[in-house]
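Long-time lurker, first post. I've been practising inverse folding by hand and with some scripts of my own, and I keep getting stuck on stretches where the structure tokens seem ambiguous. Below is the full token string for one chain I'm working on. Before anyone asks, I'm not after the true native sequence, just a reasonable design that respects the backbone. If someone could post their per-position residues I'd love to compare against what I wrote down in my notebook.
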């Protein structure tokens, strides 16, 4: 808990928790949206693949970029990109414009933003806390992500009754959380 004494770490950790929470809600919501628009089981499976493929393809490059450029600007840029994609997906879903391939394109773009945000955030931790608090800060990062991974998708199930089945808004929580 020592890293929480550093206000910048606490603020960014809470923001990261909220962002992860919204992103994981969006991931479950996108799969649910794909099922609600009557897509095949193959397209439903591609939702998760389209989200994780960019992470596999671009994370190494994103880590190198984070090591060589201003991490703060890179993280803000990736968060703004995620916000723009989430708002666009929310609007398309609200107006009933989402078709299977458009949803896959949006989820791929979310994965691209995540691929750049993750390594940047992880490399910023060392700049926010002293070296003596670094192991605890890394552990808190893992804990925060696992909290979001557990609670985020579960909240979709409990709140799914709030969304009208004809117009689900799976990306709205992500847009709010970014």
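-- Answer (accepted) --
I ran through it position by position. Result:
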């Amino acid at each position: 808990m020592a890293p929480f004494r550093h206000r910048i770490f606490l603020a960014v950790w809470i923001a990261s928790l909220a962002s992860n929470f919204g992103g994981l809600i969006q991931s479950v919501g996108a799969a649910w949206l794909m099922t609600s628009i009557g897509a095949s089981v193959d397209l439903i499976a591609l939702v998760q693949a389209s989200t994780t493929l960019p992470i596999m393809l671009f994370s190494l490059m994103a880590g190198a970029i984070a090591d060589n450029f201003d991490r703060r600007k890179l993280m803000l840029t990736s968060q703004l990109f995620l916000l723009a994609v989430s708002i666009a997906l929310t609007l398309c879903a609200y107006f009933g414009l989402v078709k299977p391939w458009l949803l896959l394109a949006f989820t791929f773009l979310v994965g691209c933003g995540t691929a750049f945000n993750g390594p940047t955030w992880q490399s910023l931790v060392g700049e926010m806390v002293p070296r003596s608090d670094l192991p605890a800060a890394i552990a808190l990062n893992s804990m925060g992500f696992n909290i979001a991974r557990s609670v985020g998708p579960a909240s979709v199930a409990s709140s799914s009754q709030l969304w009208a089945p004809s117009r689900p808004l799976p990306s709205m929580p992500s847009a709010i959380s970014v």
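A couple of notes from the structure itself: The two ends are 24 Å apart (CA to CA). Residues 7-36 form the longest helix (30 residues). Happy to go over any region you disagree with.
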